[in-house]
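The data are quoted verbatim here:
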Amino acid sequence: MSDNTAHEEPELVQLLTPEGELRTHPDYPFEISGEEARGLYRDMVLVRRFDTEAVALQRQGELGLWASLLGQEAAQIGSGRALRDGDMAFPSYREHGVAWCREVQPRELLGMFRGVTNGGWDPDEHRLHLYTIVIGSQALHATGYAMGVQRDGAVGEDGEAVISYFGDGATSQGDTNEAFNYAAVNNAPVVFFCQNNQWAISEPLERQSRVPIYRRAAGFGFPGIRIDGNDVFASLAVTRAALDGAREGQGPTLIEAFTYRMGAHTTNDDPSRYRASAELEEWKRKDPISRLHAYLEKQGLADEEFFAGVEAEADALGERVRRECRELPDPAPLEIFDEVYAEPHTELDRQRAEFADYLASFEGAGAEGGR
C-alpha cells in the first residue's frame, strides 16, 4: 500500500453539513422533529457551558484535573440520546455529554475530579459505568457485560444493548483489540464508539493507525462506520441503528466519530506545543453547535427568544456548577478505607490503624479530622 493510499480521507456519514444543511443518506433515513432538534441544541450548549466552568474551576484550584470535551459535544450527545433507558454505557474519562444524557448530575462528576469521592454515582441507576482512567480497559468491561446480557437472555428487539466509548489513542491498546476479538467471536451486543479527536495527548493519528480506524473492524469480522463526529444528527442516527442491530443479534459495530479535540487533552496539557493554530482554526469552522444553530434558523424551528433562553439557562447552570463544586464536603481521611473490601480485612485494618496513628501525631488533628 502506498503512503497516498494509506492516508486517503475516506467517506463519512454526514447528515448535517457545517453550513446547517440537512442531507439524506441511503443507509440512514433520518427524521427529526423541531422539538427534538431544539433539545439536542440545548444539550450541547449546556454541556459545553458545564465543561467551560469545570476548566475554569481547575485553573482556580478547585479541581485536581479536568478532561475537556470541547468540540466533541455532537459525538457524545448524539450517541447518548440514541441509548434506550435499559442500555448500558461504559465511558472513559471525557464523556461528560454522555453522563448528561444519563442524568448524572454535574456535581457527581466534579466530586471525582475534586478528589472527594471514589466514584460519584450509582452505575446501575444511571446505566452508566464509572469513569475509567486505564486507557482502553472499558472496552473489555463492556464486552464482558454484553456477553453477560447474552447469557441472561436479555436480547431481542426490546432487549439491552451495550456501548463502549474510547479515543483514537485507545485503539493502540491491547485491551481494545482483545475486546474487538471477544465481541466478534461471541457476536456480543456491543457498540464500540471511538471518538477520533486526532490527538492521543501529543501523538497525532498517523502514529496510531496506518489505516482509518473504522476499517480495523473488518479484520475482526464486524462492520465499521465512520461518521462526521461534529454532526449530532449522524451521531444519533448511526448509533441508534448500531444499537438496534446489536440488540437484535447482529453483533458488534465500530463507529469512528471523526471529530477534533478543541481544547487540551487535560488541564495538565498545553496543545500549543505540538499542534498548529491553523488546524484549530479550520475545525472551529466545523463547530457542532454552530451548525445546529444554523439548521434551526434556516428551518424556522427556533427564534431569538429560544436561543436567548438557552443562553440564560447556561448562565444559571454555570452559577450552579461553581457553587456546588465549592460546597462539596471534604471526606474524613479514614473514609478512604471504607469502600475497598465488602468484608473485614486484616491487612486493611492494620493500614487503617497505622494511618489513624499518623494523623493523630499532628497537633490538633484527630483521626476523623479534615483534609
Residues 225 and 255 are 5 Å apart (CA to CA).
